[in-house]
Specification:
Helix content: 25-40%
Number of helices: 18
Shape: globular
Strand content: 5-15%
Radius of gyration: 23 Å
Number of strands: 13
Structural class: alpha/beta
Largest sheet: 4 strands, mixed
């Protein structure tokens, strides 16, 4: 890597120029720009908002914050490098043929790339089971013959509008910017906040709890899922830290009333479902804002989708690979590897960073509610982050990221072990009483030097439906019974 290139200096440049001085972020708190030193861009935004919250809510002056750039890289791969019961023998993960299969797809369709997710066998009209097919190679030909009957736009429309599966053409960054969807969301930075004033909802923070201490900065989170809907349970051990998890079936009136009561006692409501699903059950944005009128303080409602909340594709479902393909990130990744074709990034960067954006946006809304009162709604989207990444961060210079570096990078990461970014000091072992296990995982990226804040999770990770659907009296309660 050239001596003139510095990860730390480049991170600060992106934070200052890409966020704090960016006209798309005109609504940031006035004090935010004074706290820019030594912060990585997205985690830096979160740290700045947290420092402002500490000052305004608790009277704590801004303290030195350290963000380790190596640990920040590990953050977006934490799902893949955690270890459950680290003292036991590891269960190996079998290698995948995914890259080989992608190469064969590109061979047959070199000028038309579609990225699909979900039960994609439904839209070509195949049965769910083909017992006569015995090998992976045999399974390719029926798909090749069927998909060849469509062009890319037909497949995209069929997947999204008829079969309700996530899928997108792999656009270049230039094509996405010129699309109706790109233009409709070009005014958005990383998120949008909307104020919903109400005459009897004055400025307020949140209700203090007998066990909430400044050293335990962080929200108490109750995740609600449906018992009859499948979930991606492989992610629970990494993504469910600090969350109670309860089941509610909104087909039952008593469970709808329980959710209504939970919302009445909440400060922030987050909706991560497919756009429109919660509206069907009476808990969309307008419904939640209406529920808040039943109490004395306003509420903050946050919703997340893939494509952004403006434009013709706002209603479509999607995840990190879909957004990466739609916004041109995948095409940029492929170009950096020397190919004029899309290569979906291996690591879920946009997923994790959009989550950090959501945390910063929620703190921003809490700060605004403390000054102006009323309720607030927040829109976040994977495409918002990815467009910002492409437009204001961009690719590495060619002398930093050369064509031959990618395979060497992956090999170097594996071989480095505890001598590279996988230093033991970047990891910690946490105990989850809810599952009766220890998990070795990445430490928090943000560190407050000499206090008074220690970032940690109050309760351990767990699967769905472990807890009762109510708020506990004490916030250190491990399992709500």
């Amino acid at each position: 890597m050239p001596l003139s290139y510095s990860i730390q200096n480049e991170s600060k440049r992106v934070l200052v120029e890409g966020i704090l001085q960016n006209p798309l972020f005109h609504d940031l708190p006035e004090d935010a720009r004074a706290l820019a030193d030594n912060y990585l861009p997205i985690k830096g935004l979160e740290a700045i908002m947290t420092s402002l919250l500490l000052k305004k809510k608790y009277g704590v002056e801004p303290r030195k914050v350290v963000i380790n750039t190596d640990r920040a890289q590990l953050f977006i791969m934490s799902t893949f490098i955690q270890t459950i019961d680290p003292r036991e023998d590891a269960a190996p993960v079998e290698p995948s043929d995914l890259l080989t299969l992608q190469a064969k797809v590109n061979k047959y369709f070199p000028n038309c790339e579609i990225h699909n997710m979900g039960s994609s066998s439904r839209f070509p009209g195949f049965p769910h089971d083909r017992p006569e097919i015995k090998t992976a190679e045999e399974s390719w030909l029926p798909f090749i013959e069927k998909i060849a009957q469509f062009d890319s736009e037909e497949i995209e429309t069929l997947a999204n509008d008829k079969y309700r599966q996530a899928g997108t053409i792999c656009w270049s960054p230039e094509d996405y910017e010129a699309s109706e969807q790109g233009k409709a969301n070009a005014h958005v930075g990383l998120y949008e906040i909307f104020h919903h004033p109400h005459e009897d909802k004055g400025p307020t923070w949140w209700n203090d709890s007998p066990e909430t201490e400044l050293a335990e900065l962080g929200a108490s989170v109750l995740r609600v899922t449906a018992p009859h809907i499948a979930d991606f349970s492989a992610l629970h051990s990494d993504l469910n830290w600090g969350k109670w998890n309860a089941h509610l079936d909104l087909r039952k009136e008593e469970d709808k009333e329980t959710l209504h009561q939970l919302i009445l006692e909440s400060d922030i409501v987050i909706d991560g479902h497919r756009p429109g699903v919660m509206d069907k059950w009476g808990f969309g944005k307008d419904d939640v804002l209406k529920i808040a009128k039943e109490r004395k303080r306003g509420i903050i409602y946050m919703r997340e989708n893939c494509y952004g909340w403006n434009g013709p594709w706002w209603y479509r479902s999607g995840w990190q690979p879909i957004s990466d393909a739609n916004t041109g990130v995948a095409m940029g990744y492929g170009r950096a590897m020397g190919h004029e074709e899309a290569v979906v990034p291996v690591l879920p960067n946009s997923d994790y960073c959009t989550g950090v954006v959501g945390a910063a946006a929620a703190i921003h809304a809490l700060l605004k509610r403390s000054q102006e009162g009323g309720s607030y709604s927040i829109d976040i989207a994977l495409n918002y982050y990815n467009r910002w990444l492409v437009k204001f961060v961009g690719s590495y210079p060619e002398d930093v990221y050369m064509v031959w570096t990618m395979p060497r990078l992956l090999g170097m990461m594996v071989k480095a072990g505890t001598d590279g970014i996988f230093l033991l000091e970047h990891f910690e072992v946490r105990t989850s009483k809810a599952i009766g296990a220890q998990i070795k995982t990445v430490k928090p990226v943000i560190k407050y030097v000499n206090g008074p804040v220690e970032l940690k999770f109050r309760v351990g990770t767990r699967g769905n439906g472990v807890d009762k659907p109510r708020w506990p009296e004490y916030l250190s309660t491990e399992i709500i019974e």
